[in-house]
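Researcher: Re-running this chain for the archive, since the previous output was lost when a drive failed. Same request as before.
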Amino acid sequence: MKKVILTLAFMFAGLTSFAQSEEENLNKWIDTYSNLNANKNWQEMISSFNQCMSEVPNWNFAYYYKGIAEYQTNNYAGAVSDLTQFINSNPEDKEALQQAYLFRAFSYNKQGLYNQAIKDADMLLQFNPQNKEALLEKANAYMSLKQYSDYIDALKKVSEIDNSNVEIHKNIAAAYAIQQDWPNAIVYYSNAINLNPNEASFYEDRAFANYSLKTPEGLQNALNDYTKAEELGVKTTKLYQYRATINGQLGKFDAAVKDYDSYLALNPNDINIIYQRGNAYFKLKKYKETIADMDKVINDEKTSKNVKIQALQRRGASKKELKDLKGAQADMELIKKLKGGN
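Model: Regenerated structure tokens:
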């Protein structure tokens, strides 16, 4: 009897020792992965996985940590696989579960699996409807799918949470601009400007939206915005070309000529702009200047036949105004030859 009792005692001692060893291993790996994660040692997190599983095969958090590390090292398919294993284990740690959904959404987006990313973002939003990261990732997926209305809706929810985020207002405005919804684009570019009044690009973008309205008020507002952008340091051919066009449409031909001059100071060989400036000079009845610009257009080898004909018409009319009737007649003859194909 004593021998049996001693045998049982040894058996219980072995079980206790085994349980302690398993707990020690678990604590060891919890500490190991926590430290590796804190230090962003992604490669070590991945390379340690097999050993971890051999010592604590039921510790599903190893899949969580490896999934995060796989994402950080751009192995998005591997991240999806590991994070799915963790999610399917029904972890009690809801914070970790939310992070797993978030990083799996990131990974789906990186692989172009946008609908799956949206589903994961929605799962995350069930935990917290105001999770900005989930809303932004969902918005990114909608943008990639070119579902602009859904993209805007997602970003608007972000703006309700953080109305001071200037990038959100700018991106909503840009999405409205893609849809050519210019009034709403103007509203959100204005929001961005109110938050950051010194960002020149916001004025440029709002200027184009105002210009696209094709109304007198819109054109004047566009002119004001382009001028503000210039004051903030934007001195580009794009700005000068649009502003010159608007000045011309508003009948401000002196201002248009100045903008064409600024454009040509940056790109002096743009024949199209020289032609446009010549037309503005003609409107101002500055016929010598018109002739000088049209000479360049007519003599340029790259000028198309149609544009050359129009330039000759302008030059001929200018010569006639200057009483150079012989020169005007010569231009009319050139037009006839071009129209006749000779």
